[in-house]
Amino acid sequence: MKNYNKIEKGWFSEICPMWEGVALSLQVDEVLYSNKSQFQQIDLYQTRSHGKMLVLDGIIQLTERDEFGYQEMMAHVPLFAHPNPETVLVIGGGDGGVLREVGKHSPVKQIDFCEIDPEVIAVSKKFLPGMACGFDDPRVNIHIRDGNAFVRECHQVYEVIIVDSSDPVGPGEALFERPFYENLKQALRPGGIVATQGESFFLHQECVENLIRITRELFPVRGYANILVPTYPGGHIGVCLGSLGTELVKPAREIPATVQDRLKYYSRQVHEAAFVLPHFARKMMEG
Protein backbone atom coordinates (compact mmCIF):
# COMPACT_ATOMS: atom_id res chain seq x y z
CA MET A 1 0.00 0.00 0.00
CA LYS A 2 1.30 3.42 -1.00
CA ASN A 3 2.61 5.58 1.85
CA TYR A 4 1.05 9.04 1.51
CA ASN A 5 2.25 10.25 4.90
CA LYS A 6 5.48 11.72 3.57
CA ILE A 7 6.85 13.44 6.66
CA GLU A 8 10.61 13.50 6.98
CA LYS A 9 12.41 15.49 9.67
CA GLY A 10 9.20 17.40 10.40
CA TRP A 11 8.42 18.34 6.79
CA PHE A 12 5.54 17.17 4.60
CA SER A 13 6.36 17.02 0.88
CA GLU A 14 3.79 16.71 -1.86
CA ILE A 15 5.29 14.55 -4.58
CA CYS A 16 2.92 13.42 -7.31
CA PRO A 17 3.48 11.86 -10.75
CA MET A 18 1.32 14.62 -12.28
CA TRP A 19 4.18 17.07 -11.74
CA GLU A 20 7.28 14.86 -11.95
CA GLY A 21 10.44 16.53 -10.68
CA VAL A 22 8.55 19.06 -8.53
CA ALA A 23 7.90 18.95 -4.78
CA LEU A 24 6.18 21.33 -2.39
CA SER A 25 7.10 21.11 1.29
CA LEU A 26 5.58 22.53 4.47
CA GLN A 27 6.84 22.13 8.02
CA VAL A 28 4.47 20.11 10.19
CA ASP A 29 4.07 20.43 13.96
CA GLU A 30 1.44 17.74 14.48
CA VAL A 31 -0.57 15.06 12.68
CA LEU A 32 -4.15 15.78 13.71
CA TYR A 33 -5.85 13.03 11.68
CA SER A 34 -4.75 10.20 9.41
CA ASN A 35 -7.00 7.47 8.03
CA LYS A 36 -7.72 5.55 4.86
CA SER A 37 -11.39 5.99 3.98
CA GLN A 38 -13.30 3.83 1.51
CA PHE A 39 -12.07 6.09 -1.29
CA GLN A 40 -8.80 7.77 -0.33
CA GLN A 41 -6.15 8.50 2.28
CA ILE A 42 -7.16 11.52 4.39
CA ASP A 43 -4.54 13.43 6.39
CA LEU A 44 -4.98 16.60 8.41
CA TYR A 45 -1.85 18.37 9.68
CA GLN A 46 -1.09 21.35 11.89
CA THR A 47 1.62 23.17 9.97
CA ARG A 48 4.19 25.57 11.36
CA SER A 49 3.24 28.56 9.21
CA HIS A 50 0.03 27.83 7.28
CA GLY A 51 -2.43 26.66 9.93
CA LYS A 52 -4.20 23.38 9.35
CA MET A 53 -3.63 21.56 6.06
CA LEU A 54 -5.91 18.98 4.42
CA VAL A 55 -4.19 16.36 2.26
CA LEU A 56 -5.92 13.67 0.18
CA ASP A 57 -3.88 10.80 -1.26
CA GLY A 58 -0.74 12.81 -0.59
CA ILE A 59 -1.97 15.90 -2.49
CA ILE A 60 -2.52 19.21 -0.69
CA GLN A 61 -6.15 20.32 -0.93
CA LEU A 62 -5.94 23.46 1.18
CA THR A 63 -4.22 25.30 4.00
CA GLU A 64 -5.97 27.74 6.29
CA ARG A 65 -3.54 30.48 5.32
CA ASP A 66 -4.50 30.75 1.64
CA GLU A 67 -7.66 28.66 1.09
CA PHE A 68 -9.75 31.80 0.59
CA GLY A 69 -8.28 32.55 -2.84
CA TYR A 70 -9.37 29.25 -4.34
CA GLN A 71 -12.74 29.06 -2.60
CA GLU A 72 -13.73 32.63 -3.45
CA MET A 73 -12.76 32.42 -7.11
CA MET A 74 -14.32 28.99 -7.69
CA ALA A 75 -17.61 30.30 -6.33
CA HIS A 76 -17.82 33.99 -7.14
CA VAL A 77 -16.54 34.01 -10.72
CA PRO A 78 -19.41 31.83 -12.04
CA LEU A 79 -22.01 33.11 -9.58
CA PHE A 80 -21.43 36.81 -10.20
CA ALA A 81 -21.20 36.14 -13.95
CA HIS A 82 -24.78 34.83 -13.81
CA PRO A 83 -27.53 37.47 -13.53
CA ASN A 84 -29.81 35.38 -11.29
CA PRO A 85 -28.37 32.11 -9.94
CA GLU A 86 -31.24 30.58 -7.98
CA THR A 87 -30.26 26.91 -8.10
CA VAL A 88 -26.64 25.84 -7.62
CA LEU A 89 -24.92 22.46 -7.60
CA VAL A 90 -21.52 21.95 -5.95
CA ILE A 91 -19.73 18.68 -6.72
CA GLY A 92 -16.81 17.80 -4.45
CA GLY A 93 -15.23 20.13 -1.96
CA GLY A 94 -16.02 18.19 1.19
CA ASP A 95 -14.24 20.85 3.26
CA GLY A 96 -17.25 23.14 2.77
CA GLY A 97 -15.25 26.18 1.65
CA VAL A 98 -16.99 26.64 -1.70
CA LEU A 99 -20.36 26.19 0.04
CA ARG A 100 -19.36 28.95 2.46
CA GLU A 101 -18.84 31.31 -0.46
CA VAL A 102 -21.95 30.24 -2.41
CA GLY A 103 -23.98 31.04 0.68
CA LYS A 104 -23.01 34.72 0.40
CA HIS A 105 -25.23 35.11 -2.69
CA SER A 106 -28.74 36.24 -1.78
CA PRO A 107 -30.37 35.22 -5.11
CA VAL A 108 -29.49 31.58 -4.44
CA LYS A 109 -32.50 29.61 -3.20
CA GLN A 110 -31.26 26.03 -3.44
CA ILE A 111 -27.75 24.58 -3.06
CA ASP A 112 -27.32 20.90 -3.84
CA PHE A 113 -24.03 19.46 -2.65
CA CYS A 114 -22.68 16.13 -3.89
CA GLU A 115 -19.63 14.49 -2.29
CA ILE A 116 -18.53 10.88 -2.69
CA ASP A 117 -16.61 10.59 0.60
CA PRO A 118 -18.53 11.43 3.80
CA GLU A 119 -15.36 11.08 5.87
CA VAL A 120 -13.93 14.24 4.27
CA ILE A 121 -17.00 16.14 5.45
CA ALA A 122 -16.71 14.72 8.97
CA VAL A 123 -13.01 15.55 9.24
CA SER A 124 -13.62 19.08 7.99
CA LYS A 125 -16.45 19.68 10.45
CA LYS A 126 -14.18 18.60 13.29
CA PHE A 127 -10.95 20.34 12.32
CA LEU A 128 -11.87 23.07 9.78
CA PRO A 129 -14.94 24.86 11.15
CA GLY A 130 -14.05 28.07 9.30
CA MET A 131 -14.79 26.27 6.04
CA ALA A 132 -17.23 23.58 7.17
CA CYS A 133 -19.59 26.36 8.31
CA GLY A 134 -20.79 26.20 4.70
CA PHE A 135 -22.74 23.07 5.61
CA ASP A 136 -24.80 25.04 8.15
CA ASP A 137 -26.64 26.99 5.44
CA PRO A 138 -30.31 25.84 5.45
CA ARG A 139 -30.37 26.04 1.63
CA VAL A 140 -27.81 23.19 1.40
CA ASN A 141 -29.01 19.68 0.52
CA ILE A 142 -26.25 17.08 1.00
CA HIS A 143 -26.05 14.09 -1.34
CA ILE A 144 -23.43 11.44 -0.52
CA ARG A 145 -22.99 10.10 -4.03
CA ASP A 146 -20.63 9.90 -6.95
CA GLY A 147 -20.86 13.27 -8.67
CA ASN A 148 -20.70 11.76 -12.13
CA ALA A 149 -23.68 9.51 -11.45
CA PHE A 150 -25.62 12.29 -9.69
CA VAL A 151 -25.35 14.83 -12.50
CA ARG A 152 -26.25 12.19 -15.11
CA GLU A 153 -29.77 12.15 -13.65
CA CYS A 154 -30.23 15.95 -13.77
CA HIS A 155 -31.89 17.73 -16.70
CA GLN A 156 -32.03 21.55 -16.85
CA VAL A 157 -32.00 21.96 -13.07
CA TYR A 158 -29.21 24.44 -12.28
CA GLU A 159 -28.14 27.95 -13.20
CA VAL A 160 -24.60 27.30 -11.93
CA ILE A 161 -22.64 24.10 -11.36
CA ILE A 162 -19.29 24.24 -9.53
CA VAL A 163 -17.01 21.21 -9.64
CA ASP A 164 -14.49 21.43 -6.80
CA SER A 165 -12.68 18.25 -7.75
CA SER A 166 -9.40 16.77 -6.64
CA ASP A 167 -6.78 16.03 -9.30
CA PRO A 168 -7.54 13.53 -12.11
CA VAL A 169 -6.33 10.53 -10.13
CA GLY A 170 -8.36 8.17 -7.96
CA PRO A 171 -12.02 9.14 -7.34
CA GLY A 172 -11.64 12.42 -9.26
CA GLU A 173 -10.45 10.94 -12.56
CA ALA A 174 -13.86 10.71 -14.25
CA LEU A 175 -14.51 14.41 -13.54
CA PHE A 176 -11.96 15.39 -16.19
CA GLU A 177 -13.48 13.43 -19.08
CA ARG A 178 -15.90 14.47 -21.83
CA PRO A 179 -18.90 12.32 -20.76
CA PHE A 180 -18.95 14.12 -17.42
CA TYR A 181 -18.99 17.51 -19.13
CA GLU A 182 -21.80 16.35 -21.40
CA ASN A 183 -23.78 15.49 -18.28
CA LEU A 184 -22.97 18.87 -16.74
CA LYS A 185 -24.26 20.59 -19.86
CA GLN A 186 -27.59 18.75 -19.81
CA ALA A 187 -28.00 19.61 -16.11
CA LEU A 188 -27.87 23.36 -16.84
CA ARG A 189 -30.81 25.63 -17.43
CA PRO A 190 -30.66 27.98 -20.44
CA GLY A 191 -27.80 30.44 -19.97
CA GLY A 192 -26.30 28.28 -17.23
CA ILE A 193 -22.63 28.21 -16.26
CA VAL A 194 -20.26 25.38 -15.34
CA ALA A 195 -17.04 26.09 -13.42
CA THR A 196 -14.55 23.29 -12.80
CA GLN A 197 -11.17 23.01 -11.11
CA GLY A 198 -8.84 23.61 -14.05
CA GLU A 199 -5.35 22.58 -12.85
CA SER A 200 -2.19 24.59 -13.68
CA PHE A 201 -1.35 25.67 -17.22
CA PHE A 202 2.32 25.67 -16.21
CA LEU A 203 2.50 22.17 -14.74
CA HIS A 204 -0.45 20.32 -16.28
CA GLN A 205 -0.56 21.64 -19.84
CA GLU A 206 -1.93 18.43 -21.36
CA CYS A 207 -4.75 18.28 -18.81
CA VAL A 208 -5.62 21.96 -19.26
CA GLU A 209 -5.62 21.62 -23.05
CA ASN A 210 -8.00 18.66 -22.74
CA LEU A 211 -10.42 20.64 -20.52
CA ILE A 212 -10.30 23.61 -22.87
CA ARG A 213 -10.94 21.37 -25.88
CA ILE A 214 -13.95 19.77 -24.19
CA THR A 215 -15.50 23.12 -23.20
CA ARG A 216 -14.82 24.53 -26.68
CA GLU A 217 -16.71 21.63 -28.26
CA LEU A 218 -19.67 21.73 -25.87
CA PHE A 219 -20.24 25.36 -24.85
CA PRO A 220 -20.80 28.47 -27.00
CA VAL A 221 -19.07 30.65 -24.37
CA ARG A 222 -16.02 29.49 -22.44
CA GLY A 223 -13.12 30.87 -20.45
CA TYR A 224 -10.25 30.05 -18.14
CA ALA A 225 -9.56 32.18 -15.07
CA ASN A 226 -6.30 32.15 -13.13
CA ILE A 227 -6.05 31.99 -9.31
CA LEU A 228 -2.96 32.59 -7.16
CA VAL A 229 -2.65 29.93 -4.46
CA PRO A 230 0.89 29.72 -3.00
CA THR A 231 0.47 26.23 -1.50
CA TYR A 232 -0.46 24.61 -4.81
CA PRO A 233 2.48 23.44 -6.95
CA GLY A 234 3.36 26.25 -9.34
CA GLY A 235 1.68 28.79 -7.06
CA HIS A 236 -1.56 28.94 -8.97
CA ILE A 237 -4.51 26.98 -10.34
CA GLY A 238 -7.26 27.68 -12.86
CA VAL A 239 -11.02 27.69 -13.18
CA CYS A 240 -12.25 26.24 -16.46
CA LEU A 241 -15.66 27.69 -17.37
CA GLY A 242 -18.33 26.87 -19.92
CA SER A 243 -21.56 28.80 -20.48
CA LEU A 244 -24.73 28.24 -22.47
CA GLY A 245 -24.80 31.90 -23.45
CA THR A 246 -24.09 34.04 -20.40
CA GLU A 247 -20.87 36.06 -20.70
CA LEU A 248 -18.14 35.15 -18.25
CA VAL A 249 -15.40 37.77 -18.16
CA LYS A 250 -17.35 40.48 -16.30
CA PRO A 251 -19.73 40.28 -13.34
CA ALA A 252 -23.37 40.49 -14.38
CA ARG A 253 -24.41 41.79 -10.97
CA GLU A 254 -23.10 44.42 -8.62
CA ILE A 255 -21.13 43.04 -5.69
CA PRO A 256 -22.89 44.26 -2.53
CA ALA A 257 -20.60 46.14 -0.16
CA THR A 258 -21.69 43.83 2.64
CA VAL A 259 -20.35 40.88 0.60
CA GLN A 260 -17.19 42.57 -0.64
CA ASP A 261 -16.23 43.51 2.91
CA ARG A 262 -16.25 39.80 3.83
CA LEU A 263 -13.98 38.76 0.95
CA LYS A 264 -10.19 38.63 0.89
CA TYR A 265 -9.42 37.83 -2.75
CA TYR A 266 -12.34 38.30 -5.14
CA SER A 267 -13.44 41.66 -6.50
CA ARG A 268 -14.84 42.98 -9.79
CA GLN A 269 -11.34 43.96 -10.87
CA VAL A 270 -9.87 40.57 -9.96
CA HIS A 271 -12.75 38.82 -11.77
CA GLU A 272 -11.94 40.58 -15.03
CA ALA A 273 -8.16 40.38 -14.63
CA ALA A 274 -8.24 36.62 -13.97
CA PHE A 275 -9.19 36.00 -17.60
CA VAL A 276 -6.09 37.85 -18.87
CA LEU A 277 -3.68 34.98 -19.47
CA PRO A 278 -0.02 34.72 -20.48
CA HIS A 279 0.43 34.54 -24.23
CA PHE A 280 1.15 30.80 -24.30
CA ALA A 281 -1.96 30.07 -22.23
CA ARG A 282 -4.06 32.34 -24.44
CA LYS A 283 -2.91 30.30 -27.43
CA MET A 284 -4.05 27.17 -25.61
CA MET A 285 -7.48 28.77 -25.16
CA GLU A 286 -7.66 29.63 -28.84
CA GLY A 287 -6.69 26.14 -29.93
Structural class category: alpha/beta
CATH class of the largest domain: Alpha Beta
Order of strands in the sheet with the most strands?
9-8-7-10-11-13-12
Number of strands: 13
- β-sheet strand percentage: 25-35%
Say what oligomer this is: single chain
| Total domain count | 2
Q: Tell me the distance between the termini.
A: 40 Å
CATH topology of the largest domain, by name, is Rossmann fold
**What does the largest sheet look like?**
7 strands, mixed
Q: Judging from the principal axes of the Cα atoms, what is the shape?
A: globular
Radius of gyration: 18 Å
CATH homolog superfamily of the largest domain? Vaccinia Virus protein VP39
Segments where pLDDT lies below 50 for 5+ residues? none
Query: Total helix count?
Result: 10
- Known CATH architecture of the largest domain: 3-Layer(aba) Sandwich
Share of helical residues: 25-40%
Comma- or semicolon-separated keywords:
single chain; 287 residues; alpha/beta; Spermidine Synthase, Chain: A, domain 2; Rossmann fold; 2 domains; seven-stranded mixed sheet; six-stranded antiparallel sheet; 10 helices; 13 strands; globular
